[in-house]
Amino acid sequence: MEILKAILLGIVQGLTEFLPVSSSGHLELAKAMLGQDPGEQGVLMTVTLHGATALSTLVVFRKDVAEILRGLFAFKSNEELAFSLKVVVSMIPAAIVGLLFEEQLDALFDQNVLLVGFMLFITGLLLFLADRAKDTQRNVSYPHALIIGISQAIAILPGISRSGATISTSVLLGIDRAKAARFSFLMVVPLILGKMAKDMLDGEFLKESVDLIALGSGFIAAFITGLVACTWMIALVKRSRLSWFSYYCFAVGLLCIIWVVSR
Fold it and tell me: Global pTM?
């Protein structure tokens, strides 16, 4: 049973890390409707699943990562160093919000279905508008990186998709669609690794019993699902198919609002 649960959690993690439907928003909906947290899992499992999706991102963008590392170890000003610095700039807003407003953010994650509904509408609107952007030929600049980082910070709210917000913001800024997807997925890897390190340093996982088979099953499920979802999402962004997810977000957001009003 634990192995099956780990596989399901891995699949959910792999899909929602990349597809713009807001995993946090859907989790809050499930908690409200079921009266419990269906995604509740140990710290060690959380770290394992996040590690799997981070690895899947690195595998999909392995050529880009190799070029970035070669550029960094050249120890001179070049395009790869500039890209890395832009990633650092993009991390600043989310890091500030996470550190300074941790308690306030935790309060929002309390089966707040109405908030989720309105935030899903915002996600849907961003995706819908991004699909209709025409002038998308620019590269990511430092100001762009900061604005995209602010979108990532806002996406901490339940119902706002991180990938949806960052990719849509990039495209609306006129950034090339392929480069927008590349930047969006690579910029989150340091944050995932940082969160993993924080969870490990907290030491909470030391109190848990370790089921290596369940951990391995969850890791493999999240890794494979992440590979598929990441590759699929890149193709959808290039072909302007984000509106598929916008309609879904509109529908679920409307159902959330109706559900709250009718109770």
Answer: 0.85
